[in-house]
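Page 42, continued from yesterday. The earlier attempt failed because a stray header line got pasted into the input along with the sequence. Redoing it now with the clean sequence only.
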Amino acid sequence: MTKSFNRVAVYAVFNDADKSSASFAVRLMELGIASRAEAKPFAMDWASKNHNNEPIKMGQRGMTFVKRDTNAERAMNRVLEVCYPKADAPKPKTAKATANKTDPVGALFKKWQALSASEKRRFTTMQLKA
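This time it went through. Structure tokens are written below.
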């Protein structure tokens, strides 16, 4: 038994959901809030007021709820995720393997050049014995 779905209606819901986050972000930008970081204190205050005045403290890294994983914190994260989805956020750039510009052979050659004559002889005789 298979269910038949109205794909057009389902896709319309997906389109509305996709457009809604952008409209929320645009409305917040019109109010002077340009990023998720700027919106977080307001969302935290809103969530605190809507969830039994959950206490907020100022920590080393900014404002946070006194108790972790509360309904207020989940509401704050949920609202911020709707307004500023992380899927749209640019990913941080990672260091590529080609970013290492040092030549390994050249580095070894410089170290070899820094050895004294007796250290070079000792190293050479150790290599011959091996």
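Notes: The longest helix spans residues 7-30.
Reminder to self: strip header lines before submitting.
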